[in-house]
Amino acid sequence: MRIISGQYKSRKIIAPKNLPVRPTTDMAKESLFNIINNNYYFDEVSVLDLFAGTGNISYEFASRGTETITCVDQDFGCIKFINQTANKFDMPINTIKSDVFKYLEKASGSYDIIFADPPYNFSEEDFAKIPELVFANNLLSENGMLIVEHSKHTNLNNLENFSYLKSYGGNVFSFFEVEG
């Protein structure tokens, strides 16, 4: 995996092979960050990265100047790798080892961007829990955006606060926003 843009542009990050992850492809990641760039200033946002895996998305935010980044993943190996990489590049990434649903049930504060990349084999009920918990606990700022990555076989556009989706090959990003 590589960082696409910003201070660490073109840096390759090699994750251990034993991590239970499926990193977002470079093509999909580049398209996603073009959308985000049109809506936000990276140095002014706070980010919550759920099911963070290798930290791929968080590194991209950090490289572009985001100072407040929190990664949540339940796998110790993933959290350890994110911490090592963040320390190596002096990136402002905080990690939390937790089941994402338990974290969302108890979380407080608000974020401008919440990115969730759960396993593609999640049930639609499990996918639906993510926006449900985010909005029930007011975790998005007023102009915030929740982005859920999933396969083209999962349909989330019937969920409350769904705004739009973008597809890139087999990757789909569903965007959710605070109504009003």
From TrEMBL:
Enzyme kind, highest EC tier: transferase
InterPro entries in alphabetical order: DNA_methylase_N6_adenine_CS (IPR002052), RNA_MeTrfase_RsmD (IPR004398), SAM-dependent_MTases_sf (IPR029063)
SUPFAM superfamilies: S-adenosyl-L-methionine-dependent methyltransferases
Superkingdom: Bacteria
Protein's recorded name: 16S rRNA (Guanine(966)-N(2))-methyltransferase RsmD
CDD domains reported for this sequence: AdoMet_MTases
PANTHER family for the chain: METHYLTRANSFERASE
